[in-house]
Amino acid sequence: MAQQFEIESLVSGVARGDRRSFERLYDLTAPRLLGIAVFILRDQAAAEEVLQRVYVDVWNRAGAPRPHGLTPMAWLIGLTREASVRVLRISVATGQEGMGLADGVIGPAIAKPGHPPETGTKLGAALRDALGRLPEDQAEAIQLSYLQGWSYLDLARAGIVEPKHARPWMQRALAGLRAELTDE
To answer: What percentage of the chain's residues is helix, strand, coil (to nearest 5)?
Structure first.
């Protein structure tokens, strides 16, 4: 909690143009944000470029109101995720397969059952196992949506779900995942 207040204070300092606040904010948040970008992009160099753009945005927009009253860290994570997904979509649209997309679509963000999760955490293992118990199309849609940033329209274009039923179908898939996770 103390770190959240420090980050809030640092973002305020950045809004005033304080370079020391910016440096400290970077030191506190860059490792986590880089991890998010690498997780999405599966490419260290691309993730580092994304992070550079994110911090330029932070410098330029620190004084602007954050949407929906987000905490500073949630705002930074959102900026990182949005920038990473944007880069990922461009790479997929242009046919660049250098982003580590296994089978051209899904990254190995959730290991297959019987393989250790990349995160090495109990939560990662529980999530992997729960996804493994879902119908294959639901597990794939959840991974594409939440780990690769696909929209409902992207899922429909891939033929995973009908466009007019995408939202309720995805809600049912997430409810199934939630039920699998709470049963453990």
So the answer is: 75, 0, 25
Q: Are 61 and 82 in contact (CB under 8 A)?
A: no
Q: Model pTM?
A: 0.55
The span from the CA of 73 to the CA of 79, in Å, is 10
| 113-168 tens-digit pLDDT | 444 444 445 666 777 888 889 888 888 888 878 777 778 887 777 778 888 888 88
Please tell me the distance from the alpha carbon of residue 28 to that of residue 7, in angstroms, as a whole number: 8
DSSP states of 71-133 as a string?
A: -HHHHHHHHHHHHHHHHHHHHHHTT--TT--GGGT--TTSPPTTS--TT-SHHHHHHHHHHHH
Q: Which residue has the tokens 């620190």?
A: 62
Give domain limits for the chain.
Answer: 2-93, 103-182
Q: Which fold has domain 103-182?
A: Arc Repressor Mutant, subunit A (1.10.10)
With residue 142 as reference, give the H or E element that holds it: helix 136-148
